[in-house]
Structure formats: structure tokens, C-alpha cells
Amino acid sequence: MNQKQLDILGHTHQLFMEKGYVDTSVQDILERSGISKGTFYKYFSSKSELLISLLSSLQESLILQREKVVIEYRGDNQKGFQEQMIFMMNFAEQNKIPEMIESTLVLNEVKTFHYIEELKAATFNWIYERFQQIFPSKTSPYLFDGAVLLEGMLNNMFKMNKALNYPLPIEQIVRYCMKRTEEIIIEVAEQKEQLFSPSVYSAVFNKKTESHFSTDP
């Protein structure tokens, strides 16, 4: 991606954060970026294609920064994971990624929908893989369920926090959800109670998760 494309992405990102994806027109992007319609379509076939490029750029930035976060906690895998999750949630909030994604749900943009599903699958897969590194091996059969629980709790806690306009800090929400997830994983491992078998889903997630979304912790 050349500098002109990066500049267009930067201006578009600001517009999406200010006006939302749906209410931002291609003309808005042209005026903010100071480019012609021909220049726009030279690099992007549509506004939805531009959104995909923006989300891809943000994802690459998130991954690079996420891996730097854990370096400080090499001796404490669990703490390192928590800090990575806190960073990811802060990154998403600061860049208004959830709002951009939610705004596309009302549109019939199949390619955008599939790309967002790939992003979600990649994030879940990363959480599941990190769980296998931070929890004892005896809990391994129950970590897929644990990853589902953590992601579900985080998503709903943040939605409720926003709906109630209740200023709970991201750090508190992440640590609370992580602690509850740890307790559940330990309990179900003791009771040998498994809901989902990871082997059933591994092929699905391997297909959905593209290689450039995954990095070693």
C-alpha cells in the first residue's frame, strides 16, 4: 500500500469515526482527502472495499502492538494475556471499530460481512490458542468453552456499560470477566463437563482464519 492509499485510509477513518460508515459518502471522502473521483477509484472499487482495507490496516496494527504488550510479561503468561486483552479493547474503542462493524449490519454487503466474520474468527482463535498457553494442560478439553464464555461476557459487558452510560474502566471489565472465566474453567475441568468439542470446530476456524491475522504470542 503506497502513501496515497494510506493517506486516504487515514482521512476516511476520521470521517467514519465522526459521521459513521453509513452516513459518510464517497464525496465526503474525496473532499476530506483532497482527491478526485478518478484517484479514489484507482485505489478502491467502492466505499465497502475501502472499509475492508481500513479494517485490515487496523487489524495489522493491532496485532503488531499486541505482541509488543506481552514482552513485558514474559514471566507471567496470564498477566500478559490480560494486558493484551485490555490493549485490544482500548484499541477497538479508540478507533471506534465496534461502531464501524455494527453500522454495516444494516447493509447487504456480502463481501464486507464475510470479511468481518473472518476478523471475528481470527480474534476468537487467538484467544483460544492463548488459553492453551496460560492454563494447565489438564484443562485443555474445556478451554474452547472458556474462550466462548470470555468473548461472550466481554461483548455483553461492554454493550451494557455503553447502554447504561456507566463509566466502568476497560481494565476493570476485562479483569472481572477473566476472573469469572478462570473460575468456570477450573470448575468444569474438575467436573469434566464439556459443551463444545474443539476438534469439531478446528477445521472451520482454520478455514476462516487467514494467516496474516495470526501471530505467535
TrEMBL record:
Superkingdom to which the source organism belongs: Bacteria
Keywords attached to this entry: DNA-binding, Repressor
DNA-binding region: 25-44
Start and end residues of each HTH tetR-type domain: 2-62
GO molecular function: DNA binding
SUPFAM superfamilies per UniProt: Homeodomain-like (SSF46689)
Entry annotated with the keyword DNA-binding: yes
UniProt keyword Ribonucleoprotein, yes or no: no
PANTHER family in alphabetical order: ACREF/ENVCD OPERON REPRESSOR-RELATED, TRANSCRIPTIONAL REGULATOR, TETR FAMILY
Protein name: Putative DNA-binding protein Bm1P1
Recorded name of the encoding gene: bm1P1
